[in-house]
Write a structure and sequence with these properties.
- It is a single chain.
- By secondary structure, this protein is mostly helical.
- Helices cover 73% and strands 0% of the residues.
- The chain is built from 16 helices and no strands.
Length: 390
């Protein structure tokens, strides 16, 4: 314990890199590799489109559960150990999927994968942010989320490169091979960072839902539903429309997500987080709307990919920052509320898509729920007070 506490990295970049790598493992190779794999697994006959939507729902149920578990563990000082265990377990679950062709077993693994993802997605940034604060480098914390964009790009490349020579459950193999060594290194490194201080310091118990924050929270809930439909089903829509896109829509999502963290971080600082969020939700809504207005057309898919891919990480960053300016002393409670809202509406997306498909609707037409949710988010943001972060 003392050796861990006394360990101090020689550079502030290595903890950031380690956190980014952990997000590559759980979000790129664990969670969102499923998006480009989905139409291939359906074509292979491994799952039906309705089952594909159910698998996504189970994964998001796991993610929400894992995020709540992470907050519980973090507040009780078990963050480092839980992070190491869940990060390596997440990579191993990706490997186990290579050997599973039974739907119920695969659903169980996707649920467990989501739990590990939720734990890591909360704990890795929290642990590194705490360390950066002690080094007066907190302004660099947003760079950790570049791991999400790199993970999307890497997983997309692995799926496309192996699409012609793998089939069925074997399609998970490239992601598993990449994830395991990265998970081992990242968990080892992050476990050596100092542990967090006891929970509750600086935390108050005033009302979290007030006239200022309630519209922000409800807008964020809309954003969760708005982005998750294209982030889950965009390649499946392309397959349903029988379109072969070069570049693929999912590759465009990955590419545009890479600079988005830096872009929205700087835009929020320049024009204010509230104004930046209004632009963010308007652009996301335009992206989902383009797919609805241009059915069966490559342009609709490409616009959706570019506009949603370039904004969804910005919505997370800006909402977290604006929420903390409204409630500067509500640390864990604030995190719990935001994660719960965003996670809950994420799992609603695939469930609504499944209901639509089973009712005879096309997959693309179910995106109307995402468009409506983003319009909802934009309108509610008009009632949020503009507060600077300082």
């Amino acid at each position: 314990m003392n050796s861990t506490a006394s360990h101090q990295p020689s550079s502030h970049w290595w903890p950031i890199i380690a956190a980014a790598v952990s997000l590559i493992v759980v979000h790129g190779f664990g969670r969102f590799v499923y998006t480009p794999l989905l139409p291939l697994l359906v074509d292979d006959g491994l799952i039906t489109l309705s089952q594909a939507a159910s698998l996504a729902t189970w994964n998001y149920v796991g993610y929400l559960s894992g995020a709540m578990l992470a907050l519980f563990l973090y507040q009780r000082g078990h963050g480092r150990n839980a992070l190491a265990v869940m990060l390596t377990t997440n990579a191993l679950i990706t490997l186990l999927q290579v050997f599973v062709s039974h739907y119920e077993t695969l659903a169980t693994l996707r649920l467990l994968n989501g739990i590990g993802n939720g734990v890591v997605f909360v704990l890795a940034p929290a642990l590194v942010l705490e360390w950066l604060v002690t080094q007066q480098k907190a302004q660099l914390s947003g760079l950790m989320y570049l791991g999400v964009g790199i993970g999307l790009l890497s997983s997309s490349a692995l799926v496309e490169l192996s699409a012609t020579w793998l089939a069925g459950p074997q399609r998970w193999l490239p992601a598993a091979i990449a994830a395991i060594p990265l998970a081992l290194w990242s968990s080892w490194y992050l476990h050596r960072l100092p542990g967090h201080a006891p929970a509750g310091q600086g935390d108050d118990h005033s009302a979290l839902w007030d006239r200022a924050s309630t519209p922000l929270f409800l807008a964020y809930a809309g954003a969760g539903l708005g982005y998750i439909l294209p982030m889950t089903f965009l390649p499946a829509v392309a397959a349903d429309w029988q379109l072969t896109l070069v570049p693929s829509a999912w590759l465009l999502v990955a590419i545009t997500s890479l600079p988005s963290t830096w872009l929205w971080n700087h835009l929020g600082a320049a024009i204010g987080d509230k104004t930046a969020l209004l632009w963010n939700y308007a652009i996301q809504a335009a992206g989902v709307g383009a797919l609805l207005l241009l059915p069966q057309q490559s342009a609709g898919l490409w616009l959706c990919a570019i506009l949603v891919g370039g904004t969804f990480l910005g919505a997370v960053l800006l909402t977290q920052r604006l929420a903390r300016s409204l409630h500067p002393h509500q640390g864990p409670r604030l995190s719990a509320a935001l994660i719960a809202l965003y996670g809950f509406t994420q799992l609603l997306g695939p469930w609504l898509a499944k209901l639509g498909i089973e009712g005879g609707a096309s997959l693309s037409s179910t995106f109307i729920w995402g468009f409506a949710a983003l319009v909802w988010a934009f309108v509610l943001m008009l009632w949020v007070p503009a507060r600077r972060d300082h």
